[in-house]
Amino acid sequence: MRLEHDFLGQKAVPRNAYWGIHTQRALENFCLSSQKVHPRLIKALAIIKISAAQANMELGDLSEDLAFAIIEAGSEIIAGKFEDQFPIDALQGGAGTSSNMNVNEVIANRATEILGGTKGQYLVSPLDHVNMHQSTNDVYPTALRMAAIQMLLPLSEQIAELQDTLQEKEAEFAGILKPGRTQLQDALPVTLGQEFSAWAQAVSRDRWRIYKVEERLRQVNLGGTAVGTGLNAPREYIYLVIEKLRQNTGIGLARAENMMDVTQNADVFTEVSGLLKAAAVNLNKIANDLRLLSSGPYTGLGEITLPEMQAGSSIMPGKVNPIIPEAVNQSAFQVMACDLAVTLACQNGQLEINQFLPLVAHNLLSAIDVLANSAKILSDKCIKGIQANHERCTELIEKSLITAPVLLPHLGYEKTAQVVKSARKEKIPVRQAVKELGYLTDQEIESILDYRKLARPGIAGQTERR
């Protein structure tokens, strides 16, 4: 062990650890969730430290040897080194100060090594050098925005792939007529392709919303220091560090016109989280529908067959369950729970800072991960392998009474009701019932009850008007 000190006193830190006393105190204080800070957030913090070092060096406030050591250490973190040196619980008090200091200390100790020193010697100070002209209150919100932007674009692409897969099935199943259902009761004929088209359309809205919402995250408060006023940060630095950040990320980040607003208010995270929740709602609806349509397979709807991914029971041989839709259901519930946590955290900030941003970061970034993974497995492990049970769909159409409403424009409500009553009583198809009642000729029946036309706009059996 090695001894380090802060203004609270001394504390032992593992000799080989790159972290320091602040991280050590956080490890002991925050034993909450057993989940670590998201690695994307850590890398975003490292990019900020690099950008600040570049700006401070260019302005002459940081010597070249210290700056280059900080930049090299930060670059190693971004490359994936030292992942085990960020052990703090994702849920932490202090508005993210522990995460900011964890990165400061790891960079400082690694930069000290680069300059020929040893861990704990601090030739590079975590506060005076790595954190120069910064505060957790401008660094942490900026890092969270950056991490979210970098994760939202791949999520949008993954949802686009899901949309493409659904549209492929829409085309494949375009000619398969089946019962449509409302309130889980027989309604009107639809095609299986039409059902997939509706899911694809819903997913396309999610794709567009998520693609566009990242623009809302581009205004950052880096340079605003503790409360957004920019105290203790030179004016030149405030403009230059944002420029360095743009260069280092390739993201169109901009200094917020009102940095106090961005420091205080976290409503943009609520907005982003709400759109993630909307996407989760759609994925959950699709998963539910797939489970219903594949139910049985012999005693349920059985209109489609899902890919068989694994054995379903330890006591019922041959049973195969819809495990992928079930997993997506649970993922959707988790995203909705994350949204509630984000909402509560964002609304409970006070005055010049939101002290609950670690909870926001943990749930927002986790929700993005879960959604991206859910969209991928739903597309790759389920929808791509779905097969239509054409004969079953036709059988259900014939056995049901859902073709009866097609007769309304030709027979009126009373006669159509008689057809339904007769079909139900005799347990015969609608086609047979209307024929036995003598309401229509064989030719009229064939024209009106042409299955190829029952899922289209217009009046079946009637010549279209120009």
What does this structure look like?
This protein is mostly helical and 466 residues long. It has 3 domains: 2-132, Fumarase/aspartase (N-terminal domain) (Fumarase C, Chain B, domain 1), CATH 1.10.275.10; 138-390, Fumarase/aspartase (Central domain) (Fumarase C, Chain A, domain 2, Up-down Bundle); 401-466, Fumarase/aspartase (C-terminal domain) (Ribonucleotide Reductase Protein R1, domain 1). It is 56% helix and 7% strand. The strands form 4 sheets. Strands 1-2 form a two-stranded antiparallel sheet. The chain has a two-stranded antiparallel ribbon with strand order 3-4. A hairpin with a 2-residue loop joins β1 (2-6) and β2. The chain is elongated. The model has no long low-confidence stretch (mean pLDDT 94).
Strand-residue proportion: 5-15%
Which word captures the global form? elongated
Based on secondary structure, the structural category is mainly alpha
State the CATH superfamily name of the largest domain: Fumarase/aspartase (Central domain)
What Rg is obtained from the alpha carbons, in whole angstroms? 31 Å
Q: What is the CATH-assigned architecture of the largest domain?
A: Up-down Bundle
Quickly list its features.
single chain, Ribonucleotide Reductase Protein R1, domain 1, Fumarase C, Chain A, domain 2, 466 residues, mainly alpha, two-stranded antiparallel sheet, two-stranded antiparallel ribbon, Fumarase C, Chain B, domain 1
Task: Give me a quick take on this structure.
The protein has 466 residues and is mainly alpha-helical. It has helices spanning 21-29, 39-58, 64-78, 97-114, 136-172, 192-213, 235-249, 259-264, 267-293, 323-347, 357-381, 390-399, 408-426, 430-437, 442-448; strands at 2-6, 9-13, 177-182, 185-191, 219-220, 254-255, 304-305, 387-388. It is elongated, with a radius of gyration of 31 Å.
